[in-house]
Amino acid sequence: MRLTESIALGFLPFAIASPAPVIKPAVLRSTGLNSWAPHNAHNGYAPVNVTCPINRPSIRGAASISPEEKSWLEKRHEKTNSGLKQFFSHVEIDDFDALSYVESHEEDTTDLPIIGFAISGGGLAAALNGAGAFKAFDSRTEGTLGKGQLGGLLQSTTYFSALSGGSWFLGSIYINNLTSVTALQEGFWDFSSENFFSGPTSMTTTEFWGNLTTQIHAKKDAGFSVSDPDIWGRMQGYYFFNASDGGVDITWSSIAKNKGFQEADLPLPLVVLDGQSFADVESDPTISEPIYEVTPWEFGTYDNSIYGFAPLEYLGTRFVGGKVPDNETCVHGFDNAGFITGTSSDIWNEDGDDIIAILEYEMSLLSPNTTSGAEEIEGIEYVMKEVIYALNSTNATLVGASAFDPNPFYQYNPETSPFAQDKRLTLVDGGEDGQNVPFNPLIQRKRNVDVIFAVDSARTTGNLWPNGTTLVDAYERSLVDLANDTSFPSVPDVNTFLNLGLNAGPSFFGCNASNLTVPAPLVVYLPNHPITYMSNVTELQTHYNATARDDMITNGFNVATQANGTLDSAWTTCVGCAVLSRSFDRTKTQVPEACTRCFERYCWNGTIDSHTPAPYEPSIIL
Ligand SMILES: *[C@@H]1O[C@H](CO)[C@@H](O)[C@H](O)[C@H]1NC(C)=O
Ligand SMILES: *[C@@H]1O[C@H](CO)[C@@H](O)[C@H](O)[C@H]1NC(C)=O
Ligand SMILES: *[C@@H]1O[C@H](CO)[C@@H](O)[C@H](O)[C@H]1NC(C)=O
Ligand SMILES: *[C@@H]1O[C@H](CO)[C@@H](O)[C@H](O)[C@H]1NC(C)=O
Ligand SMILES: *[C@@H]1O[C@H](CO)[C@@H](O)[C@H](O)[C@H]1NC(C)=O
Ligand SMILES: *[C@@H]1O[C@H](CO)[C@@H](O)[C@H](O)[C@H]1NC(C)=O
Ligand SMILES: *[C@@H]1O[C@H](CO)[C@@H](O)[C@H](O)[C@H]1NC(C)=O
Ligand SMILES: *[C@@H]1O[C@H](CO)[C@@H](O)[C@H](O)[C@H]1NC(C)=O
Ligand SMILES: *[C@@H]1O[C@H](CO)[C@@H](O)[C@H](O)[C@H]1NC(C)=O
């Protein structure tokens, strides 16, 4: 029997323990804490109708990057030139003056490299591991301009993509005024509560769920469908967005209004989401489902099928055939920041209910005297589903996927888009297609990325280490006719990854540009491996005390720097060589001897060894 809405909302499992459930109404106003961030100031979590501007918003075709990106890149280009000079002021290549090389080529806008940085999904563990690499590359981190360090690489980077758990980290930086990892560790990130479901330490669980349900109600009352990332994303807000009420009214498009972002102080943030046909919502997306990206300005895909982008700020508006009909009004506030990260990490459709698995896992870790665990799990599961069912008028399941309702691509490109007749677009976790490192935005040839630093925290071996699957999936997708303007270097099969140890430490792919039929980036693969900490923590874990949190981040830092050069004193040189490799080709510069040695050591040379590998069981290296 389906409970009525009011019963469902009153049936918070925590009421069992507490006297009467006190549901604190969410404070639906902006307190101006993030005064730079234009909140959806009118109405808290609920999207609102606004008068359309005179130039009514429309869907643009995907034949080029957006005009906003184009003009932003001009500014970023100046910053990355300075970044490269900062980087090569301390990273040396023997018998080659890299700093002078950069200085002598900075006038020509196409000579110097365009760098991409991508961090994978894999729950909070992936967010922390990705944060470690980001911290190592960020010259704002103390000590990163010294020997064996890589500070300035982030300042030299143009694009930063993330998905799923990785998007929680990306959001932590960009939604919090372009803060740093050190600042997050010292002043905000707190994962010490029991789990994500019990709410942050600053409030009771009852209060937490009271806030969530009130907030989500507001969206429903405004006439919008709600789906699981509304709940999941609102939960994340309290852990990752340093603002009142978990950033209830902060939109993703507000990043574009941030001064530091407008000054192009950090790379362009790109979040990946996967499409999924509604009929198949219980399965993982097939290779042909769209891969979407969210920039601070737009949501859409370069895939041949939809091949269009919607203005992010106006998501929630009823577009028909790419236009807003005269009788329709415009909508603001649909692109709530948590809704974006919540969709990118929406694994509710996988294996039954994976988010419930997170809860079960966390409950299993609790001390034995919390025996109400099982009941609590059932209770929460029940409430989450009931909230969603009760709020939506039909029983057509909205549990299991993200509803982008209305579909901004309704009747758009009907000849090629399988979604042109769908009133609602269905999305799931950005890593569910197997491409768990968000390469897709970085391999669009329109973006001319030369080198991608790929941090992989996938849990694809039996004991939760990455094994290269994500590269194989990215490569395979680049070969089929789904996104015809993408390219990825050749990579071997997964067995070869394990047999040659390509997942046991850094390895480079696509080093030899002459061996490529179409230009593709060089990929610097940085698989998670245990240098100072057993970082193969399950993606289901959402509880870390401050020590464990920092140990995870430091291991990620050590992977990126190869333990500050302890594992290879030439590592920073080799990173510098990877950065400049395509630039050397363009400027017809003789590859320095030191770089040739690096490439011999780190580049996959085409060898295949596909026999069944022994189990991969690394132990802590240092
Ligand atoms: C955001 O960061 C910039 C640069 O660090 C700083 O000047 C500004 O005061 C910050 N804004 C807020 C509201 O914290
Ligand atoms: C979090 O917000 C508080 C209050 O605005 C601010 O003092 C602090 O620096 C912020 N922390 C981070 C990591 O942004
Ligand atoms: C690439 O995709 C676009 C958009 O779907 C299409 O117009 C074009 O014909 C495609 N080109 C090739 C070579 O497939
Ligand atoms: C690079 O690839 C080209 C074309 O396949 C090949 O002729 C050349 O030997 C390769 N260079 C190296 C260093 O492997
Ligand atoms: C922090 O967590 C780690 C790993 O779960 C555990 O070994 C350690 O004892 C904890 N430390 C504290 C102070 O609770
Ligand atoms: C490398 O340097 C960082 C930053 O100083 C430090 O946290 C880390 O422990 C160092 N790694 C090793 C293996 O000493
Ligand atoms: C290529 O790599 C394999 C294994 O990593 C190695 O055994 C082989 O000698 C290398 N071949 C060349 C030509 O360098
Ligand atoms: C060179 O290109 C061929 C053909 O695409 C491919 O099979 C081979 O693996 C590539 N070699 C390397 C080292 O990437
Ligand atoms: C982590 O990996 C080690 C081997 O490298 C393995 O013994 C351990 O069970 C793994 N941990 C988890 C949680 O799977």
Describe this structure in words.
The protein has helices at residues 5-10, 67-90, 98-105, 123-137, 165-174, 181-187, 205-221, 228-240, 259-262, 337-344, 354-365, 373-391, 469-479, 494-499, 546-561, 571-586, 593-602, and strands at 48-50, 60-61, 115-119, 159-163, 268-275, 291-294, 298-301, 308-311, 330-332, 402-404, 425-428, 451-456, 507-509, 522-527. The chain is an alpha/beta fold and 622 residues long. It has one domain: Cytosolic phospholipase A2 catalytic domain (3-Layer(aba) Sandwich), CATH 3.40.1090.10. Bound molecules: 2-acetamido-2-deoxy-beta-D-glucopyranose (9 copies). Residues 500, 605, 607 line the site of one 2-acetamido-2-deoxy-beta-D-glucopyranose (NAG).
